[in-house]
Each structure stands twice: as structure tokens, then as C-alpha cells.
Amino acid sequence: MNIRAGVAVVVLSISSSVALAQSLKDKEYFADQEKYLAGEVTSTNERCGNSLTAKFDWSKPPTPEDRKTYSVYSYCGAALEAMRRVCDSQAGKEAVKQKIKSLTCSFGPQRTVVLKDGTIDYQVNFNSSNDADYVFEYLQNNL
User: Fold this and answer.
1) Cβ(53)–Cβ(101) under 8 Å?
2) Cα 120 from chain centroid?
3) What is the rounded CA–CA span in Å between residue 59 and residue 126?
4) How far apart, in whole angstroms, are the C-alpha atoms of residue 21 and residue 56?
5) Is the dihedral of CA 68, 74, 78, 79 positive or negative?
6) Strand runs labelled E in the chain
7) Domain chopping of the chain, boundaries
8) Which residues in 14-30 are b (16+ Cβ under 10 Å) and which e?
9) What is the dihedral of CA 43, 38, 67, 24, to 10 degrees?
10) Residue pLDDT, tens place only, 17-65
11) Is the Cβ–Cβ distance between 130 and 123 less than 8 Å?
């Protein structure tokens, strides 16, 4: 086995272990959040005239306490709201169509946003505020 194949097997094993470790409650929660996010993606694609995709990176999921307190998809949806605002101008709409193909939301100790190779990586922090404004400002400066 070459090194790449070995790495792929290790990554697949880790991913499978995480999936198997989830309870039914977790799986249903994650599926609901994905469904709600898909609705936000649809309205963003309609406004921006593109076909971007969005997903959560559940490798470091929010704690059960955070899930009870915060609407996870709405924090991620703030990035989509920012994109819709950018698309209010024709120049912004063209920039989004050309430069943004997907959005990945993850969770961590600090809110961050990075656009690289057509993907926005948005790390959610539940203690942050004005998230749509934060992402909008980033997009205005980086598209």
C-alpha cells in the first residue's frame, strides 16, 4: 500500500468512527440543521443567480448545551445572508457568481472567515455578534 492510500484509509476510518459514535439524537439533530441550512442556500442561490452549496463540518460539533441554546444553522446562515447582501449590487452578484462555489461552516473558539479556491470556510463562535455584518465586510474586501 502506498502512503496516499494509507492516509485515505486512516481518514476514512476516523470519519466512519465519528459517524458510528453518533447517537440517533445526534444524527437527527445534524440532519435537521442540514435541512434548515439547505433552505437558506436556496434563497441565496435565487438572489445571487448561482448554484453554491453549503455544508457543516461536524468534526468538532457544538456541545449538547450549545445545541439547546443556539440555532446552529442560523449562525452559518449569517454567511449566506452576507452573500445575499453582496448580491444586491450587480457587481457584487457577478463577484459572488464567479468566486464563491461553496460554504463550509465549522465550530470553534474564534469566529473566522476565509475565501480560498471558491470555498468560504466560516468558523462559528456562539459568543460572536453581528455575524452577517462581519462576513459582509470580509466579502466586500476580498471579492
Assistant:
1) yes
2) 8
3) 17
4) 17
5) positive
6) 53-56, 102-107, 112-116, 119-124
7) 23-142
8) eeeeeeeeeeeeeeebb
9) 160
10) 344 457 888 888 888 999 999 999 999 999 999 999 999 998 888 888 8
11) no
